[in-house]
């Protein structure tokens, strides 16, 4: 019977030391706690700011130092810190579970050694004697516990889904405990909080869905700490079921945690600190002069996320969207750069073109059939085929007798094609690139399509889709011509000398509209 062992706060050794609101590490009493500056006292009525730091922002000693100075500068804005596991640790933890499932529990545990060492190096560099000793013992406990779990998985692989979450959750537990201790060491009144007491989920291990109870639980834990002018530090990505079993929210889930926590406490802003300066006007590998986009609407951000631009997954910021909380993407290595602010449609600056996005490796499928003419039900049958092959379609264009569709996952293409041939003639083209011009209000701006296509009039364009969403103009080119097309488009919209109509269309990178939430964050 292994389940009771999983209940956090009860039997898990490591977790019992971190009851909500109190760090497992003895914390040096901060000087500020007694003589808090006036600004901080005034901030007590202000809405909190959630600051989430991703794995690369806490990958080593230098990164921890950067985070410390960022938090120090934001100390007056009632910060709540959400942190990912240190860079690379989640991958290693997952790989260790795989190894244990394959029966090699010793090898599984060994995979983690160097990552525990990395934590210890940071602790040695940044903690005083007492808190260092406490952190060393936390690492020891975590190691012992994970070792046991690896053994259980190796002998009973069926137990792996919940045990995997239990193991992987150590990544965020350790980073949050370490960060809380480092902040305290630097005189900031931080408190490590076990995120599992806040984020309540269903039992879908590996990709658990947060439940409504999260709001109440989060408020109960965090509001008293904020009231006492403490800085809560929580691990992202992790939660627990109603029975107290550890869960995780899916890869990259720390952004989701930040949005859930921000929504629960009515944050003023949710900041996602990463290693790029916000969202860029184009992929910098193709366009070295790509600039940070100052303001994006949620809708534009969602369109860009598909192109793998370093934008948040739309699902992860949904809780923020629902509460109308702005989300800012910032660079922890260049904290003075203001990054990109993502706001609701109505608050986004009315600028026509915000970004030139592209995605390579696209396959297009064209189905032509005279049976389509004047008939109904054809599209349903066509989409059923994609459904059966579990293949997602991204762009669709139709004419009277043909339909073109784009897919970015062509693994079941042969079988898919065979089934589509029952409906009509099928032509497939691989190595295509989708290019998308993204900007709120694009559809209502005259002349945009003409400008776009005139700069690439020597490049063969297909599958033009304009108007199905008001925020993008999308088309397909050959992969070999994508780089030149993107560079030229970027040039006319962002780099060229202002065209006479630019003022009218707002095409140039306009400065963000004065925004009363935009006071400097760091
Ligand atoms: N550490 C987790 C991951 O690597 C969660 C996150 O970083 O957002 O997926
Ligand atoms: Mg991440």
The helicity comes to 40-55%
Q: Count up the domains.
A: 2
Total count of strands: 16
Radius of gyration: 25 Å
In the CATH classification, which architecture of the largest domain applies?
3-Layer(aba) Sandwich
Give the class from helix and strand content and strand pairing: alpha/beta
Broad CATH class of the largest domain:
Alpha Beta
How would you write the strand order of the largest sheet? 3-4-2-1-7-9-10-8
**Distance between the terminal alpha carbons, to the nearest Å?**
50 Å
Tell me the overall shape: globular
Description:
By secondary structure, the chain is an alpha/beta fold. The protein folds into two domains: 12-86 and 171-290 and 309-343, 3-Layer(aba) Sandwich (Carbamate kinase), CATH 3.40.1160; 355-521, 2-Layer Sandwich (VC0802-like). The protein has 19 helices and 16 strands. α6 (89-101) runs parallel beside α9 and α8 (113-126) runs parallel beside α10. The radius of gyration is 25 Å and the shape is globular. The chain starts with a helix and ends in a 17-residue tail after the last helix. The site of aspartic acid (ASP) has 13 residues, from α12.
Structural features:
VC0802-like; Carbamate kinase; 522 residues; 2 domains; six-stranded antiparallel beta sheet; eight-stranded mixed beta sheet; alpha/beta; disordered C terminus; binds aspartic acid; 40% helix; binds magnesium ion; globular; 19 helices
């Amino acid at each position: 019977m292994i389940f009771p062992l999983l209940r956090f706060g009860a039997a898990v050794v490591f977790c019992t030391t971190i009851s909500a609101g109190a760090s497992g590490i003895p914390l040096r009493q901060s000087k500020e706690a007694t003589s808090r500056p006036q600004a901080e006292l005034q901030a007590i009525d202000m809405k909190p700011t959630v600051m989430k730091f991703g794995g690369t922002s806490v990958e080593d000693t230098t990164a921890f130092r950067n985070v410390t100075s960022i938090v120090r500068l934001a100390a007056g804005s009632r910060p709540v810190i959400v942190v990912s596991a240190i860079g690379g640790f989640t991958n290693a933890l997952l790989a260790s579970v795989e190894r244990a499932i394959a029966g090699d529990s010793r090898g599984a545990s060994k995979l983690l050694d160097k990552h525990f060492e990395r934590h210890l190096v940071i602790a040695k560099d940044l903690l005083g004697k007492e808190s260092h000793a406490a952190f060393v013992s936390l690492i020891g406990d975590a190691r012992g516990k994970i070792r046991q779990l690896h053994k259980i998985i190796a002998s009973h692989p069926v137990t792996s889904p919940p045990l995997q979450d239990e193991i992987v959750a150590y990544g965020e537990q350790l980073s949050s405990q370490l960060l809380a201790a480092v902040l305290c060491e630097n005189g900031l009144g931080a408190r490590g909080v076990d995120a599992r007491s806040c984020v309540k989920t269903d039992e879908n291990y590996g990709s658990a869905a947060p439940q409504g109870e999260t709001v109440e639980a989060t408020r109960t834990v965090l509001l008293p700490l904020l009231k006492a002018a403490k800085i809560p530090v929580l691990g992202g990505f992790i939660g627990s079921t109603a029975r107290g079993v550890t869960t995780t929210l899916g890869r990259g889930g720390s952004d989701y945690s930040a949005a859930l926590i921000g929504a629960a406490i009515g944050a003023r802003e949710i900041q996602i600190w990463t290693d790029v300066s916000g969202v860029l006007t184009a992929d910098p590998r193709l366009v070295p002069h790509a600039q940070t986009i100052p303001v994006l609407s949620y809708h534009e951000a969602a369109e860009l996320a598909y192109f793998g631009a370093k934008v948040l997954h739309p699902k992860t910021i949904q809780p923020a969207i629902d509460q109308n909380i702005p989300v800012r993407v910032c660079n922890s290595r260049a904290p003075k750069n203001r990054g990109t602010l993502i706001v609701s449609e109505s608050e986004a600056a009315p600028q026509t073109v915000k970004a030139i996005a592209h995605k390579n490796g696209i396959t297009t499928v064209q189905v032509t059939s005279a049976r389509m003419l004047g008939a109904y039900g054809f599209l349903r049958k066509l989409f059923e085929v994609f459904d059966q092959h579990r293949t997602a379609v991204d762009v669709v264009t139709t004419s009277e007798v043909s339909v073109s569709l784009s897919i970015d996952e062509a693994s079941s293409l042969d079988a898919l094609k065979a089934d589509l041939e029952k409906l009509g003639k099928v032509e497939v083209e691989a190595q295509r690139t989708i290019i998308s011009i993204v900007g709120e209000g694009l559809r209502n701006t005259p002349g945009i399509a003409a400008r776009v296509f005139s700069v690439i009039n020597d490049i063969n364009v297909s599958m033009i889709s304009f108007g199905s969403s008001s925020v993008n103009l999308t088309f397909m080119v050959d992969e070999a011509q994508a780089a030149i097309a993107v560079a030229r488009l970027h040039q006319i919209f962002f780099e060229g000398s202002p065209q006479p109509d630019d003022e009218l269309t707002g095409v140039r990178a306009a400065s963000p509209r004065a925004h009363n939430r935009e006071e400097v964050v760091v």
